[in-house]
Each structure stands twice: as structure tokens, then as C-alpha cells.
Design goal:
Blueprint: E1 7-10, E2 16-19, E3 27-30, E4 37-48, E5 54-66, E6 70-74, E7 82-85, E8 94-99, E9 105-109, E10 114-117, E11 125-127, E12 136-141, E13 147-151, E14 156-159, E15 167-169, E16 180-186, E17 191-196, E18 201-204, E19 212-213
Length: 235
């Protein structure tokens, strides 16, 4: 969501839905059977005039990533979309995206793929090449320096310099060889969390170096549940 009213949902068959009334109703903005979208990021920015100067009018930049390495973006609430491949020489799927402002963003995907953009998603540069061959299911950045990526087989990667160097760290005890689906870190709460299959939740402080297991209600029954997402206040 961009604010308390406006938000987007993306999915298979290139589907993009938009709401401007807190989700009471949704309208179809895009559908393309050749595409499959996996994640969406929304950033507030300012409208530009043709000279490159800011008008001062706030707009929302929406960036969506998906299968085949495709990225699509809009700056007019989804009325028009610009579509491109993040890398011309790669067809690896993009599974997750995180932007910290209207310029700096990261996307992660299949076979350890991590890409960084410093121009609002127009161009992307690869990072962490060769560090992991596992699918990276979620990437999250607190700011332009600190970020994490998590994925299959208990993969947890952390960076403190904007992704120039990534370090592999251990997940919590019960998540060492399972699929990690999502990661969120909250400065407000002072913690970060990882959601995983088998009902596993891991928690860490803001350094994100050491992760411990969180107990959930339900006993052994919770292990049959795959936790696909998690969210907390970020600020």
C-alpha cells in the first residue's frame, strides 16, 4: 500500500489490481497471460517536468517484478506501465523487491540472483554473484546500506554496505535446511523476523547476525503450516 487508501496487488497471468478505498473494491489495471508477477514496491516521489526539474507534486512510483526477469513500473497510479527486463542476458525469475526511496532498490530471485538499482528501477546491476545458488524468496532493506535476503535451504544473507559485500549467516535452529519465505525488520520494534515453512519463525536484533527461534501456539500442528509472509511497522 502507498498510504491508508491506495494499494496494489499482483499475481499470475500478469494480473495487477488497484484500490483507492482501503481495499473495499479493486479494479483491474493489467492482465497479460505471458507474465507472472511476484512482488510489488511503492515509493513516494515527486513529479518531474521534461527538463528534469521537480514540480513539487507528490506522486507514487510503483515497481513490480516477476518471472523471466521482467520489471514493470508506473508513476501515474497504474494508468500506464513501462516494462523491461532487469538483465538482458538473464531469464531468471525475480521473486522479491525492496525500495528504500525513489532511487535505491534491490530485487532478488532464482539461483541466488540479487540486483540493485540506483535510478528508480530503470537499470539494474548484479550483486553477490556466486555467493548462493538457492532461490532467494525475500529481500528487505532498512536503508541504503543495511539489508537482508532469505531463501531456500535456510539461506540468510546480510549486507551493511548497500550490497557490495554480502555475508552468509545462520538462521535459527529449526530453520537451517527449510525454505525461508519472507523477512521484515522494524526499527520501531527493534527486531527482525523471518517466516518459513514448517511453521518456523526466527527473530533477531537490528544487526541481523544471530537468529533465534520463536515459539508459536499450536504445538506440533503448527509444523504443518507454511508461513509465507510476515509484516511489522518498519519505521
Amino acid at each position: 500500500f502507498a498510504d491508508e487508501r491506495r494499494g496494489w496487488v499482483v499475481g499470475s497471468n500478469g494480473t495487477v489490481l488497484y484500490t483507492d478505498n482501503t481495499g473495499s473494491t479493486w479494479s483491474l489495471q493489467m492482465r497479460d497471460a505471458t507474465k507472472s508477477w511476484n512482488d510489488v514496491a511503492v515509493m513516494k516521489t515527486q513529479a518531474l517536468v521534461t527538463s528534469g526539474e521537480f514540480l513539487g507534486q507528490e506522486v507514487y512510483m510503483v515497481v513490480i517484478v516477476g518471472a523471466g526477469g521482467f520489471v514493470t513500473s508506473s508513476v501515474d497510479f497504474g494508468r500506464t506501465w513501462i516494462q523491461r527486463r532487469a538483465m538482458f542476458d538473464s531469464r531468471l525469475g525475480l521473486l522479491s523487491i525492496s525500495f528504500v526511496d525513489h532511487l535505491y532498490g534491490w530485487t532478488a530471485g532464482e539461483r541466488g540472483l540479487i540486483l540493485k538499482s540506483t535510478d528508480g528501477g530503470v537499470s539494474w546491476n548484479r550483486q553477490g554473484e556466486g555467493l548462493s545458488s538457492e532461490n532467494l524468496n525475500s529481500i528487505f532493506f532498512l536503508n541504503r546500506e543495511k539489508g537482508w535476503a532469505v531463501g531456500d535451504n535456510g539461506t540468510v544473507l546480510v549486507t551493511s554496505d548497500g550490497g557490495n559485500v554480502w555475508e552468509r549467516v545462520l538462521p535459527c535452529m529449526f530453520a537451517s535446511n527449510i525454505r525461508l519465505n519472507d523477512i521484515k525488520v522494524s526499527v520501531q520494534l527493534g527486531w527482525g523476523w523471518i517466516a518459513a515453512e514448517n511453521g518456523a519463525i526466527c527473530r533477531s536484533d537490528l544487526k541481523g547476525q544471530i537468529w533465534t527461534s520463536e515459539s508459536l501456539p499450536g504445538g506440533d500442528a503448527i509444523k504443518a503450516i507454511e508461513i509465507s509472509g510476515i509484516d511489522f511497522p518498519i519505521a
